[in-house]
Design a protein that fits this description.
heterodimer; A: 230 residues; mainly alpha; 11 helices; 68% helix; 2% strand; globular; B: 216 residues; alpha+beta; 2 domains; 5-stranded antiparallel sheet; 3 helices; 5 strands; 19% strand
Chain lengths: 230, 216
């Protein structure tokens, strides 16, 4: 078993293989609840927790499971974890749970979770699998929050509205009003805003990537390029 | 023979995982059940107290309830929370009243009506109206819903219980007439229902309210 270095796991989850921007997985909840930072954060954290737990459990049981029943067992693990998280959210973050509604149980069907269980956790040690789950989850959550911030600021002219749903009563006045008496930009709140926003964010990431690539190509010219420019 | 043993082994393993998964869920359910029920109670009580502050009544709104079904209040059974002070009826809170003809499906309302027939307040507790167009019915988005407070069947006159576009007294929103029209209609119907059934609604509970609570 070739062990993936931790640095690569972190870099893959957050950037190079980001679930939302590169793998384009789990878009249904991403597009549906990213209309404000707090909604996005709520779902992002739930996804992060699910991914970490399911990767850990799948890695723990990876030698007990024969190939024939691999997928049903993984689905069972994920469904149990998500249901437990859903119940806990209903108990401790009741209002947020009401707002996110169906999208919490729907984490079960988020392909990124079964994808990481199958492609990574079932072949790696527990510590690596947990790191991978956490980093992939963090990558998803960051993408969600970024899209949520984009849509909330354009759509409502605020950031962090309803922060008390996640952070408790103390956070009631965290709302940042970017533009006073903003009339709202409806498109950003509606589903098309989610698609356009995600498209723009992916485009920005690709621009950054190609910029980095050009930089490193200039710093260390590859042999054939050196020959071509000479 | 080897194949049968392998199948049996795999089958048993799968069954064991199913049992373990169910056990996790059952344990979490058991651990969170009381807390979830408490959160739901607190969340409902908060909504009720927003319309009827604690000083205005002295009974437990969550246990002094009545279930009614009436076409005026929507297709489902509606819970009526009765507020009393010193045993004298103060107000009735209907939840959820369903306005069936919203733009994108039913709109769920919480409607509090005082004993004298004036509205103590109306709140939207659930809807799927278009964000930005129909959602000013939410208290968080605009003050529109607050304008019902203090109104009654005679204020405005029955013919005026419509949005302005239909010749009535209530504002509609730019780009959305159907949503406010549905809400106005549902509130008006509820007021009519209340006027016709007021005495039945406040009929004293046969057993003391606290004793009736566990049965619910």
């Amino acid at each position: 078993m070739s062990a993936t270095p931790y640095g690569k796991i972190v870099h893959d989850g957050l950037w190079a293989n980001n679930p939302a921007f590169v793998q384009i997985l789990g878009l249904c909840p991403l597009l549906a609840v990213s209309n404000s930072v707090i909604n996005a954060l709520g779902l992002g954290l739930a996804t992060l927790l699910t991914l970490t737990l399911s990767n850990t459990i799948v890695s723990l049981i990876r030698n007990l499971v024969t190939p024939e029943i691999r997928l049903p067992v993984f689905v069972l693990v994920i469904a149990s974890v998500v249901t437990a998280i859903e119940l806990a959210m209903n108990a401790y973050l009741h209002e947020l749970h009401t707002i996110l509604g169906i999208f919490i149980p729907l984490i079960v069907t988020n392909c990124i979770i079964i994808a990481r269980a199958e492609a990574f956790a079932s072949k790696n040690t527990v510590a690596r699998a947990a790191t991978d789950g956490f980093m992939m989850g963090l990558g998803s959550a960051l993408a969600l929050v970024l899209l949520g911030a984009l849509r909330e600021s354009l759509g409502h002219g605020t950031l962090l509205a309803n922060a008390h749903l996640v952070f408790g009563e103390a956070a009631k006045d965290w709302t940042i009003t970017l533009v006073e008496h903003y009339h709202g930009f409806l498109l950003a709140i509606l589903p098309p805003g989610a698609f356009i926003g995600l498209g723009l964010l992916i485009a920005v990431k690709n621009v950054v990537d190609s910029h980095i690539e050009r930089r490193s190509a200039q710093a260390v010219p590859l042999p054939h390029e050196a020959g071509a420019t000479a | 023979m080897a194949l049968t043993r392998h199948m049996l082994r795999t089958g048993v393993a799968l069954a064991l995982f199913a049992v373990a998964g169910t056990a996790i869920v059952a344990y979490t359910f058991d651990q969170t059940r009381a807390r979830i029920a408490e959160s739901e109670r607190a969340s409902l009580l908060q909504k009720l107290h927003a319309l009827l502050p604690t000083g205005q009544h002295d009974n437990d709104l969550l246990s002094d309830t009545l279930d009614v079904t009436a076409p005026e209040l929507g297709p489902k059974t509606v819970k009526v929370h009765r507020a009393r002070k010193g045993g004298i009826p103060v107000a009735a809170v209907f939840t959820p009243v369903i306005a069936p003809d919203g733009y994108s499906g039913p709109i769920k309302l919480l409607i509090a009506i005082r004993y004298d027939g004036t509205l103590a307040g109306v709140r939207v507790i659930g809807h799927r109206e278009t964000p930005g167009l129909g959602d000013p019915i939410e208290e968080a988005r605009s003050g529109w819903i607050l304008k019902f407070t203090g109104r009654s069947l005679s204020d405005p006159q029955p013919g005026q219980w419509k949005v302005k576009k239909d010749g009535g007294a209530f504002d509609q929103f730019t780009g959305a007439t159907i949503t406010p029209r549905a809400v106005v209609k549902a509130v008006y119907n509820s007021l009519n229902y209340f006027a016709a059934h007021r005495d039945e609604l406040f009929a004293p509970v046969t057993a003391p309210a606290t004793a009736a609570a566990p049965a619910q």
